[in-house]
Design brief:
Distance between the termini: 28 Å
Number of strands: 19
Shape: globular
Structural class: alpha+beta
Radius of gyration: 23 Å
CATH architecture of the largest domain: 3-Layer(aba) Sandwich
Length: 527
């Protein structure tokens, strides 16, 4: 349901039909217990970047559009309709009569304030770049080189919001489902400061609102009676558990104490048993698992070292012998999409890896400095790290120390201080477009954790942002991936995830398999 045609108007009646069709019968008053895999970094959508946080955002906040639960494509939300200018750059959104959870009316100015807050350099939002790269004037403001007044977003009136993009972005509407674009309550933020996300002060815009937050234990959200589509929200509450140990979570699931285990909570050691269960759900995904090299820290300043380490890893062995869950090995980063071909990358080649490491001055690993690989506490990340540690020792003579960190500390180390040498990472697409995978490695991007920088790479992505959908844009993005992965080896891709979860679909409706593994909670119901 992408809306990118000239002058297209999405009628409110279409939105009404869609939401009515997704409303589930029965299940009113039910509570779902979901294991979220770790303590969230924050509940402020401007300050978060991880999947556990995104899941909470789907419940607590909303933007102009949201993800269709079956396709993950954008569908109307607080915006009931929109029109597009002839040059396909300016979008004008008509807003619904929507309210925050405290009853305050949501206006177009609230969207202006929310987006500008994300862009404000003082906020230090990790996803500021997604707005900065897309909206005219936004990048300059985020970089401290322009003013908020120059950002091309405006409240035409209380019920009309307008945005002008840097080019005819073919993915514009799908992009707006991202957390960076949700509407947040300036009045509550101004009043309570950083404490606005505490239960006593919380004000949200989504189908649920925050009731309880016990750190390292659980977060409870309850149905928001002020939500514009509250009549179609069937659950009375959701409980998000912060269990990092997948084995513990799985035992609780089997005991009926958890209703849903998402992908990151499915323990790899139990996968043979789990695959036989009727409540095991698996589908092909679009997410990528990879390691990041901090290119500012020796020895990873040397591209030969980065290539040697990447080429010494047998990716097929990881997915076929270690994980055994249907993941697809890849040395490329961006999944194949219509018109876009994934780069082959630097695949497993032990002879070449040894040659490159010797050329870098470390024959058979001799003299290689101490290296620490960090990962967040999780059984799957642990077994992969141990496999890679063994590969680097056996194949290259390199000894690597492993360090697991709890989620919030892991994110701070990776994203804020950048005090790491190698780290695990995963990317769940915000919208299905090659640019969404590649943009985060531009110089200065909030998700460029390894501090990679290549002017040619930046130039190609800037060019792609001004091109319409088609062959020229795809070729430009393919060239960018070639530089990032094959030429510079800034990261080492391992595999594309198979989306896995444990949930009994004979008991729950509104949960669908989709490539992006996004499951908005407003449509979930107990059968």
């Amino acid at each position: 349901m992408r809306k990118s045609l000239v002058g297209l108007v999405v009628a409110a009646s279409l939105a009404t039909l869609f939401f009515a069709s997704c409303g589930q019968k029965g299940g009113s008053g039910a509570n779902m217990i979901f294991n979220n895999g770790g303590e969230p970094q924050s509940l402020d959508p401007a300050l978060t970047s991880g999947v556990p946080e995104a899941r909470l955002t789907y419940s607590l906040f909303e933007g102009l559009v949201v993800n269709d639960p079956q396709t993950s494509k954008a569908v109307p939300a607080i915006a009931e309709s929109w029109t597009v200018s002839a040059d396909q750059k300016t979008y004008t959104f008509k807003l619904r009569n929507a309210k925050f959870s405290d009853g305050t009316k949501i206006t177009a100015q609230d969207f202006v304030d929310s987006w500008l807050r994300v862009l404000d350099p003082k906020t230090a939002a990790p996803y500021a770049y997604i707005i900065g790269d897309s909206v005219e004037g936004a990048g300059a403001f985020n970089a401290g080189k322009g003013s908020a007044a120059d950002v091309k977003i405006k409240a035409v009136n209380a019920g009309t919001f307008e945005v002008t993009f840097v080019g005819p972005l073919p993915y514009a509407i799908d992009m707006l489902t991202h957390n960076a674009f949700v509407v947040t309550p300036k009045h509550a933020i101004d009043k309570f400061g950083a404490d606005w996300v505490k239960p006593a002060n919380f004000v949200g815009s989504g189908p649920f609102m925050l009731k309880d937050w016990k750190p390292q234990d659980k977060i409870v959200v309850v149905k928001n009676p002020k939500y514009w589509d509250a009549k179609n929200v069937k659950l009375s509450s959701l409980t998000y558990l912060a269990i990092e140990d997948g084995n513990v979570a799985y035992d609780k699931f089997k005991a009926g104490e958890i209703d849903w285990l998402a992908d990151d909570s499915v323990p790899p050691a139990k996968i043979d048993e789990i695959k036989l269960r009727p409540d095991y759900q698996v589908t092909a995904g679009s997410s990528i698992y990879y390691y990041i090299f901090n290119v500012t820290k020796k020895p990873f300043t040397d591209v030969k070292v980065r290539k040697a380490l990447s080429m010494s890893i047998d990716r097929k062995a990881i997915v076929e012998q270690v994980l055994k869950a249907g993941d697809i090995a890849s040395a490329g980063f961006v999944p194949a999409m219509a018109g876009f071909t994934t780069t082959k990358g630097n695949e497993y080649n032990l002879d070449e890896a040894k040659k490159l490491l010797a050329e870098a001055g470390y024959p058979n690993g001799k003299g290689f400095p101490k290296v620490t690989l960090i990962y967040n506490t999780n059984a799957r990340h642990k077994v992969i790290a141990e496999f890679v540690q063994d590969q680097w020792k056996k194949n290259l003579g390199i000894s690597v120390q492993l360090q697991n960190l709890e989620w919030a500390t892991f994110l701070d180390t990776r994203q804020k201080t950048h005090e790491f040498q190698v780290t695990r990472a995963g990317w769940l697409a915000d919208y299905l477009d090659p640019g969404n995978y590649l943009d985060m490695f531009k110089t200065g991007s909030g998700n460029n954790d390894g501090l990679y920088s290549n002017p040619k790479y930046d130039e190609l992505l800037a060019k792609a942002s001004s091109l319409p959908a088609g062959d020229e844009r795809n070729k430009t993005l393919e060239a960018a991936e070639q530089i990032l992965i094959t030429d510079d080896q800034a990261i080492s891709p391992f595999f594309f995830y198979a989306n896995k979860s444990l949930v009994d679909l004979t008991k729950w409706s509104g949960v669908y398999s989709n490539a992006m593994d996004i499951h908005p909670t407003k449509w979930i119901a107990k059968k």
